[in-house]
Amino acid sequence: MTDTRIELLQATPLFGGIRDDIVGFVLARAPTITVARGECFFREGERADCMYVLERGQAVVVQGGGESERVLRTLDRGACFGEMSLMDLAPRSASVRAVSDCTALQVSAACLFEIYQKDLEQFAMIEMNMGREVTRRLRERDAAPRVKPD
């Protein structure tokens, strides 16, 4: 485990304020995955059992498909995604596609449960961070200008 990876996680909205030992615990249990340009981390409607932290590359969050596909946001290094389905246990609400070759840390629901068992306070802080991040994204979306059809 490198200090750089711990710092990367602690700089994300989900792991901000989380102690080094807990971040190290996550890193020891979370595999690094690679997703090639054009491939998806996950697709809209799939069941969820993990979230991701983008370590390298760029990806987009999209809803719909074909001509009706909408890009909701672009993800860069340090971005967390997929946590919403871990919170509400519902299928994925969007797809995440790699724009370039990507590597990401895959944090499973089982890993989060282990944190719950190990340190309830740190688990609660991660869950609160998830809630804040989802709320921030909703507020950003609500504040975005609406384009009216002609």
Core attributes:
150 residues; alpha+beta; Jelly Rolls; four-stranded antiparallel sheet; 8 strands
Unreliable runs:
none
By DSSP, the count of extended strands is: 8
Class by alpha and beta content: alpha+beta
Going across the major beta sheet, what is the strand order? Answer: 1-8-3-6
CATH class: Mainly Beta
The largest β sheet comes out as: 4 strands, antiparallel
Number of helices: 5
Average pLDDT reading: 89
CATH fold category name: Jelly Rolls
Instruction: Name the helicity range.
Output: 25-40%
Query: CATH architecture, please?
Result: Sandwich
Which term fits the overall shape? globular
**Rg for CA atoms:** 16 Å
In whole angstroms, how far apart are the ends?
A: 54 Å
Domains (count): 1
How much β-strand is present in the residues?
25-35%
CATH superfamily: Jelly Rolls
The helix/strand order is HHEEEEEEHEEHH
In short:
The chain has a single domain, classed as Sandwich (Jelly Rolls), CATH 2.60.120.
What is the secondary structure topology, with strand pairs?
Blueprint: H1 3-10, H2 20-29, E1 32-35, E2 40-42, E3 50-56, E4 59-63, E5 70-75, E6 80-81, H3 83-88, E7 95-98, E8 102-108, H4 109-118, H5 120-143
Tell me about this structure.
By secondary structure, the protein is an alpha+beta fold. The chain has a single domain, classed as Jelly Rolls, CATH 2.60.120.10. 39% of the residues lie in helices and 25% in strands. The chain is built from five helices and eight strands. The protein has helices at residues 3-10, 20-29, 83-88, 109-118, 120-143; strands at residues 32-35, 40-42, 50-56, 59-63, 70-75, 80-81, 95-98, 102-108. The strands form two sheets. A four-stranded antiparallel β-sheet has the order 1-8-3-6. A four-stranded antiparallel β-sheet has the order 2-7-4-5, with no helix packed on it. Helix 1 (3-10) packs across helix 2 and helix 4 (109-118) crosses helix 5 (120-143). It is globular and about 45 Å long. The chain starts with a helix and ends in a 7-residue tail after the last helix. The model has no long low-confidence stretch (mean pLDDT 89).
